[in-house]
Amino acid sequence: MGDDSSRSAVPATFPRIWAVIAAIPAGTVLSYGEVARRAGLPRRARLVAQALRAVPDAMPLPWHRVLRSDGRIAFPADSLGFREQCNRLRSEGVEVSATGRVRLAAAAMSLDELLWRP
To answer: In its keyword annotation, does this UniProt entry include Ribonucleoprotein (predicted)?
Structure first.
């Protein structure tokens, strides 16, 4: 996702955000705002986007499982990133519309799933 050569010190909040994203199970999604909340950073959805741009290339992170609060993919519809995110989500069984929208209620993690998942 990112470019290691242009990166200086990573803000202390980024590893917390990355840990939340790394824990999103395949086939489920979270909004940028929900990732921020679970990282202990409520109302910091834009910080999640910044953290995703700064992910080291060597860090395998399921970035494609993070969506806008309305369930839409953030990339422009005609972009390579949009197509890549759609393909990755669909390969995990997530239903993505032609316009890049996911029904969050159907694909989001519930508290019960988080607490009782084997």
So the answer is: no
CA distance linking residue 15 with residue 71, whole number of Å: 24
Q: Are 17 and 41 in contact (CB under 8 A)?
A: yes
DSSP state of 64: G
Beta strands in the chain (DSSP E): 30-31, 66-67
Is 116 a member of any domain? no
Q: How many angstroms separate the most distant Cα atoms in the chain?
A: 41
Report pLDDT for 48: 98
CATH of the domain at 99: 1.10.10.10
Structure tokens at 66: 């993070």
> How far apart (Å, rounded) are the C-alpha atoms in residues 83 and 81?
5
Kindly tell me if the per-residue pLDDT of 8 is higher than 80: no
pLDDT tens across 61-118, in order? Answer: 999 999 999 999 999 999 999 999 999 999 999 999 999 999 877 666 655 555 555 5
